[in-house]
Amino acid sequence: MVGSVFRHDLKWNDDDGDIIKVGAAVSVGEQPIKGLVNPEAGARMTIAECLTNLVFAPITDIKDIKMSGNWMWAAKCEGEGARLVRACTSLCTGLKEIGCAIDGGKDSLSMAARVDDELVKAPGTIVLSAYVGCTDINKVVTPVVTGDMTLIHIRMDGSSAFNRLGGSALAQCFGQIGNNCPDVDDFTSFVQIFNMIQHLIKNGTVQAGHDISDGGLITCLLEIAFSSNIQLECSASSETDILQFFFAEESGVVIAVDNADVNEAIECLKRGGASPVVIGYTEARYGPDAHVRIKYNGLVVVHEPLNVLREIWEETSDRLGTYQTTSLCLEQERKNRMSTRLVKYYCNFDYNFETHIWDESYFTTAPNIAIIREEGSNGDREMAAAFAYAGFQTFDVAMTDLLEGHTLAPYKGIAFVGGFSYADVLGSARGWAATIQYHEDVSRQFKDFYSRRDTFSFGVCNGCQLMTQLGWIGEFQEEANVFLKDNTCGRFESFFGPVLIEKTPSIMLKDMEGSVLGLWSSHGEGRFTFKSSEAYGSLKPFVALRYVNSEGQVTEEYPWNPNGSIEGTAAICSKDGRHLAMMPHSDRTFMTWQWPSYPLNQPGFQSNKERIALSPWSKMFRNAYEWVRLND
Fold first, then answer.
1. Which residues contact 96 (CB under 8 A, 6 or more apart)?
2. 3-class DSSP state for residue 336?
3. Cβ pair 568, 555 in contact under 8 A
4. What is the pLDDT of residues 49-70, one digit of tens each?
5. Class at the top of the CATH hierarchy for domain 141-323
6. How many other β-carbons are positioned within 10 Å of the β-carbon of residue 479?
7. CA separation for the pair 619, 550 (Å, rounded)
8. For 602-627, how does the pLDDT look when each residue is reduced to its tens digit (9 = 90+)?
9. Contact at 8 Å (CB) between 501 and 543?
10. Angle between helix 80-98 and helix 39-54 axes, rounded to 10 deg
11. What percentage of the chain has pLDDT greater than the value 90?
12. From 349's CA, which of 140, 159, 275, 613 has a CA 20 to 30 Å away?
C-alpha cells in the first residue's frame, strides 16, 4: 500500500494576520516490479511515485524534502549485487537533479531463501519515505470530488511520447513482466510541473487530485469515482493503443478543478512545461444514481453503473473479509455500499465561541481539568487540546501520580482518555478499573470526586469502557449494569461515520440534540450490552448518542454501526448528566481538519475563521466549560 499522511501541529500568523495551520506531510514510494524489468528505471519511478503522492499537500519547497531509503534485495545472489549498484546509482543521480536528500534508512540484503531445491528471491525493492513541512493543512487535496468538476490529466515528464506497459498491473494480470517499463527521462521537467501543481493547490484552484500508479490512468479515474461515490465521464482521443493509453503506469496525476477555472489551470500548467489534457468530468449524481462512462476515439468502451464497477473492485477485499469477519457483516456492508448516496449531516446549533487561551488571564482564571491516563493510553494529547480550546487549563495526570498521593481535589473535571490500557490483556479497561477499585485511597478519591456536585467527568473509548466498569453512567451502581463486548464483526474497527445526538440530561451535549454529526470510531470492544432488558430500559433515557446510517436512521447494521450495539447505542450519561461515557472519539473530531471530508455545504455547518477552524463537536467541550463557570 502506497500513500501519504499529513500530521497537523503548529499555528502561526501570516502577513495578513490570519491563522495558518501548518504540519508535516509524509509519503511513501516503491516500484519493485518495474525494477525487475530495469533496476535504474525502477529506482527513478520510486522517486516519482513518492513525489506524486506528496504533491497534493502544499509544502515549503521541493528541496526541503528529506527521505528515508529502505533497501530489500537478494544482493548475495549472482547478478543481484550489480543490479543493486545500478539502482543505487540511478537513485542518487535522480535525487541530485531534484535537490532532495536521503538522511537515513536501513537495508536487508539477504532477501533470498532456499525452498526444497529452489532458490526463491524477493524482488529488489527500494522504499522511499519522504517528509517535509506542510504550509497549510486546510489546503491538502484528496481524491474526493464534490459536485460538478473537470478532470485534467497531467504527465509529470511533460509529454505523452511513451505509454510503456512493462512491470504494470495489466502485464501481471496476464502472467507477464514485460521488457520496457515506464521511466522518468527528465527530472528537470518533473520538478517544474511539480511546482506548478503546488502553485495551483496553494491558490485554491485544485479541488481534488490523485496520482497515477499501479493500474494506470483508468485505475486512477475509477479510484476517484469510487472514493467520491460520484458519476464520472471520460473522453479521450489518441493514436496510442487503447490498452497502452489507459493501463500504462507512466508518472502522472489527475486533478479536479471547478469548471470555471479550467482555462486558468491549463494555461498555468503549460507555463510550467506540462501538456495538460482535459480527460473527463464529474457530475453530482451519487451511489446507485451514478454511472461511469469512458469513451476512446469516439467509441464507448465502458458504460456501467458505478456500483457494478465498485463491486468488482471490492471483490478481493470481500474474499479476504471472509477470513476476518462474519458473513452477516460482509453482506450488510455490501448492501449499504450499494445503497449509499451522500451521508446526510445536520447541525442545528451555533458552535462559534470566543476562546481565551491566548489571554494572560487564562492561566489564573481557567478551570482545571485532569486528563487521566494509564499505561497504554494514547489519546491524552487530543483530549487535552479539545478541553484547552474550550477554555480549560489541562493537567496531565497519570494513574501512578494518584497511586503516589496526588489528589483530585483541585479539579472541576476529569477526562478518561482513549487507548489500550495494559494492552487490553485482561479485557478492555479491566486492569485500569482494578487499579482504581482495589486501591483504598485511590478508590476513595474517585468516589469523592463523583459525589461532588460541582464536578463532571468524560470518558472516550477506553475511558468509556472504564466508566462502565466503575458504574458511573445511568444511576450509580456498585455492580455494573453495562458491559462493552467485542464488536460483532470480530475485529478492530477504525471508521468515520454519523451519529445522532439524543436529548438527555448530559451537560456536555446540552442544546445539541437532534443533530447528526460525524465521529471517528477506533475500538475492538465497543458493543454496548446490558445485564438485562430491564437494565437497558432503565438506561434508555440516558443514551446520549446513537449510530445512524447515511440517511440519519438509527441502525444496528455494519459498517454504520461499527460494533453492533443495541439500537445504535454509542454513548450513555449519568442520571444527573454530569458524567458522560462515549465510545467514538469527539476528541479526535473537534476541529474541521480532523474530519476526512468536512461537510461545509450541508445544513448548519460553519467555520470559525477568526481563531481556528472548530467543528460542531467543540461545543460539547465548551458546554462543560460554561457548566463549570455556572456552578463554580
1. none
2. helix
3. yes
4. 999 999 999 999 999 999 999 9
5. alpha beta
6. 6
7. 23
8. 888 875 444 458 899 999 999 999 99
9. no
10. 40
11. 84
12. 140
